[in-house]
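Quick note —
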Amino acid sequence: MIPMSVWEIFTDVMYCFTGKDTLVNLLKNTMQLDFNLGVLWFLPCTMFAQIVVIASEKALKDNDFRGKYFFILSVSMIAGIMCPWIRLKRCLIAIAFLEVGLLYEKYFKYSKKALGVCAIIWAITMCLNSKVDLSAGLLGNPFLYILHSTCGSFVIIMLCKYIRNNNVLKWIGQNTIGILMTHTFVRHFYILLEEKILGSYYGGWSMAFLIVVTDLMVVVMLEKIVPFVIGKRTA
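Predicted structure written out below.
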């Protein structure tokens, strides 16, 4: 919450001073749980889901482990599919994925065979389902969506377990929130800079490379000086 709030304020101030957006509209987005994070809409969504999961943990702590998590998973998915309000819809679905992760951690074991099966199911369901866009509340076929996204999540989790001893990837994993948050700010900064100099934003691979390098440099610097603004207690 701390890095998200800090960089939200930085980005909003930049937008207001450059005339990119109005303060009223920025505050409206924040109050509607959209914030002004663009493609990072999933961060407040996930944080809301974590609060619900933690609360349910305390409320149902004496119940059967599998029964408890399957119950919460089912309720959140059904409620999410039926919910008409997009912002709440995706939060409810996020709860289900956190529950799947907890079940995975408890019962699922890594193996190359499991990785292969999940990868095949993920690829097949991707071809079978229609347009999916969780940020807009579009799931296509709900059954295929759940199967596809769950298997895709398993593939990512298993790959991360397999390569977790890589120091570079370990550093990226420990600084994920900081990288995401500063990336939004750095990207907006370069867009505004290019618009001021050239009159329009052209982007391209060179700009993408410059943004990523600057972003990593900023994270390294902040990690040493003020680690709390990238979600870390100490450097």
